[in-house]
Amino acid sequence: MNKSIHIKLITPEKILFEGDVVSVSVPTTSGVITVLPEHVPLVSSISSGELMLKREGEDMYFAIFSGVIDVRPQSQVTILADRSERAEDIDVKRAEEAVTRAKKVLEEKVHESDVDFARFEAMIEKELNRVKVGSKWGK
Length: 139
Fold this sequence. Notes:
Blueprint: E1 5-10, E2 15-21, E3 23-28, E4 31-35, E5 42-46, E6 49-55, E7 58-72, E8 76-86, H1 92-108, H2 114-137
Parallel strand pairs: 1-8
Antiparallel strand pairs: 1-2, 3-4, 3-6, 5-7, 6-7, 7-8
Helix pairs in contact: 1-2
């Protein structure tokens, strides 16, 4: 039995992480799932939240914002994320300021289109996720 999972965490900008881990916990649209070695094949949508990669003696945390997880046979996992960043790289103060700015703009544009409203709601959700993960697991 294989005791590790080979994972690639890919964003449009770069491969954020590639290596072997013991487990992967990821927020999906159906809830948080944990992938262990020899997991059954699976494809699922990812929702905003906290991604955890567990290595021998080390846990790595990431804020993740939508995407897809693809679990293949022989413990191969690929995560294609619209955006993701390591917890220790998150500037929590900057993220909090971005939430405040987005909420202010949203309040000022109360009668604007639904598209603008949805865009600002998504921005607030993304920044709140960054604040949560960065505050909990960052430096």
